[in-house]
Amino acid sequence: MNCLIIYSHPNPASFNHAIKEALVKSLKEKGKNVRTRDLYAMRFDPVLKADDFETLSRDKTPRDIEIEQEHIRWADVLVFIYPIWWAGMPAITRGYVDRVLIKGFAYEETPQGSKGLLQAKKVYIINTMGAPLSVYEEMGIFKAMDMIYDQQLFGFCGFKVLGHKYFGSVQSVSDEERKQMLAEIDGIVAGFEG
Ligand SMILES: Cc1cc2nc3c(=O)[nH]c(=O)nc-3n(C[C@H](O)[C@H](O)[C@H](O)COP(=O)(O)O)c2cc1C
């Protein structure tokens, strides 16, 4: 199984980084092939520009985007790891989505409506949050994010969403609780087989 990690965090001392490391370790122990796209480390350009539209209008894809699409073609499972910022994705992750998951690669328009082209792929999303899980649950934000991301973004492109894991209160819990969170990663990876 080929697993592609799309990782967005600028700080190597972050909890997101620890999650990424735990995930890579667990995947490798289980014999999976792993590639990581560390968007900040790569200095990924997240801004969709007039140039991009111009290139795409000539049936060409900008080279940096072609490279990312090749990684996605290679992958059976994509795992997105990012913190929740302003109740959503960090701008760099959102820009990756804007520029990489484009028409003709991720979806197409048909007379019957839009059709996802990445139906053979699976995706799992791992997020950290400052807020407690109960607050987002009560406010309906998880439900909103499920609709916006799992259904309208990944589902729209045809991905089968294997799961969406939120780790809440990550800044305020104890080191022991954070260790327990990291220990959950093995179980998440075990679920990729199904
Ligand atoms: C710009 C910014 C926006 C944030 N917005 C939210 C938010 O909307 N909801 C939330 O629960 N936490 C929010 N946070 C807190 C982060 O989710 C939290 O710092 C992160 O998950 C901790 O993981 P880390 O140590 O890997 O950065 C925000 C943090 C930053 C820097």
Describe this entry's structure for a reader.
The protein is α/β, with parallel strands linked by helices and about 190 residues long. It has a single domain (about 1-194), classed as Rossmann fold, CATH 3.40.50.360. The chain is built from 8 helices and 7 strands; from the N terminus they run βαβααβαβββααβαα. The chain has helices at about 15-30, 50-55, 65-75, 90-100, 135-140, 140-155, 175-185, 185-190, and strands at about 1-5, 35-40, 75-85, 105-110, 115, 120-130, 160-165. The strands form 2 sheets. The chain has a 5-stranded parallel β-sheet with strand order 2-1-3-6-7, with helices on both faces. The chain has a two-stranded antiparallel sheet with strand order 4-5. The chain is globular. The mean pLDDT is about 95. The site of flavin mononucleotide has 15 residues, from helix 1. Flavin mononucleotide binds near residues 15, 87, 130 and 171.
